[in-house]
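User: Predict the full complex structure for these chains.
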Amino acid sequence: MSRTARMIMFCGAGGAFAVAAILAILVMPAFGGSSHPYRDHAVVASVHHQAPNAITSINFDQRGFDTLGEETILLASVMGVSLLLRPADDETETRELSSGRVLDVVRLGGYVLLPVTLIIGLDVVTHGLLTPGGGFQGGVILGTGLHLLYVAGRYDALEKVRPVTVFEWGEALGAGAFACLGIAGVLAAGAFLVNFIPLGTFGDLISGGTAPLLSGAVGVEVASGVMVLLSKFFEQAIRITGDKNGDESAEAAGA
Amino acid sequence: MNAVIVLALTIAGIGGTAVVFTERPDRQAVTLSAYGLTLALLFMALQAPDVALSQIGVGTAIVPLMVMLAVRKVKQRR
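Assistant: Here is the predicted structure of the two-chain assembly.
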């Protein structure tokens, strides 16, 4: 497509979007008003489903299908990263690590924060229905928390506690468990991702029906996905080095 | 709109501008991380703690780390 044609297309589409966006913004409710019809319905529904944290109830109960889509996007992105960041033909994996200098205070901070972060991550996953958080947030905390070992200068230790294969399985199993719980809803109660187990008592750790199970599945998937994602980046940045003759051989191949 | 929200919005605006005006991508990862924290404060002020948690995890930890590792790799290849 020529530059002029692209410009015409951009101006047409961009102009139409700008007009529609401005018209929509002009009739939007004012910032911070007190009328929230969606909230009024969502909070009532989450209380009916014994879920104190309405956000988790929306994510894993009322709009569980949306969350399935989001988790699938994450799964696809991690798969894409794994595919793109695999060692290329002209790259070799190095065994020796260049040990950089780590300040003692940074090292200490990494070691102290590592267990704290992991416990917070587990807490955020398990209490997702009661307090802010849930599978996604807790999973991200767990997945990034282990990388404090790298901050502490122990990339070798990080590699030991990070069996990438296990996390690859974990990611797939987490995503699969989410879909299976949805299908179980079809079989047991007639609709995809509908709650089919007893709701329990409002405010109990184990309550809210399938929502905490779905949240846990997402927690496993996200924590594993983040581990796999970052491990691919780390391998590329630290372990894999381009062959020194890579450019020459590429030229030779082209000639 | 109360004073806390105005303050948080202002800080987030300053943070975002700082990211745009940081020139080298490796330094930009650091300002991006700090900007992520200011956004998390804004979400807290807007009473969205769940979003703030996601923002801290993704915006201040994972994305800047990925940017830094990518920059390191690109520098190696040069």
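The first strand of chain A starts at residue 91 and ends at 93.
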